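Subject: design request, 198 residues
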């Protein structure tokens, strides 16, 4: 059993896909980037901070073997695109992404209070050209309101995606191959690992 330091239903669903046993507790952190912090360093730092906070606040009381933190950022031209503040901000984001390649950087971190390890995964996504009517209709669905970069590749926003290179699950929010690697390193069970006799 691990603690997922996140309230994201997408990350919970991805963990279920690989048969991981977990309980979820969201942690509240200041997610402001440091001055001059590179996007890959930013997502790795946040993943580690989330895992550490989850371990310190919840894992020891719940009997979990480790705590998992993750973070995902959409990056265009070296600039992190966060969650849209409002409709106008979303339109600006989607117009910038329209017809362009961008990066999606995800990090996953696991800690047991003694050892902490993290993995960072970079993927590429290209949007087809979008119209203002499409962008407005997408905003009105409600889906992009709480999504980094203002879209969900696994949801309604999938119709905008022209090209993907890298890890699909990382773009959704949790790189499963790297998560499974960390589970193996820490002795955490999932569908491919036989449960240990303890």
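Subject: RE: design request

Done. Sequence follows.
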């Amino acid at each position: 059993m691990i603690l997922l330091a996140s309230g994201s239903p997408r990350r919970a669903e991805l963990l279920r896909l690989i048969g991981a046993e977990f309980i979820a507790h969201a942690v509240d952190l200041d997610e402001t980037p440091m001055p001059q912090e590179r996007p890959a360093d930013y997502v790795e730092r946040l993943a580690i901070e989330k895992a550490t906070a989850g371990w310190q606040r919840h894992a020891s009381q719940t009997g979990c073997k480790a705590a998992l933190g993750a973070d995902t950022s959409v990056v265009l031209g070296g600039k992190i695109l966060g969650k849209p503040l409002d409709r106008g901000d979303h339109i600006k984001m989607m117009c910038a992404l329209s017809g362009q390649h961008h990066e999606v950087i995800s990090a996953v971190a696991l800690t047991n209070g003694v050892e902490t390890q993290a993995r960072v995964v970079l993927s590429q996504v290209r949007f087809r050209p979008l119209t203002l009517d499409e962008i407005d209709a997408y905003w009105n669905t409600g889906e992009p309101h709480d999504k980094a970069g203002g879209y969900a590749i696994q949801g309604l926003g999938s119709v905008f995606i022209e090209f993907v290179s890298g890890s699909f699950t990382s773009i959704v929010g949790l790189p499963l191959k790297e998560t499974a690697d960390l589970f193996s390193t820490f002795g955490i069970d999932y569908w491919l690992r036989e449960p240990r006799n303890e």
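The longest helix spans residues 39-62.
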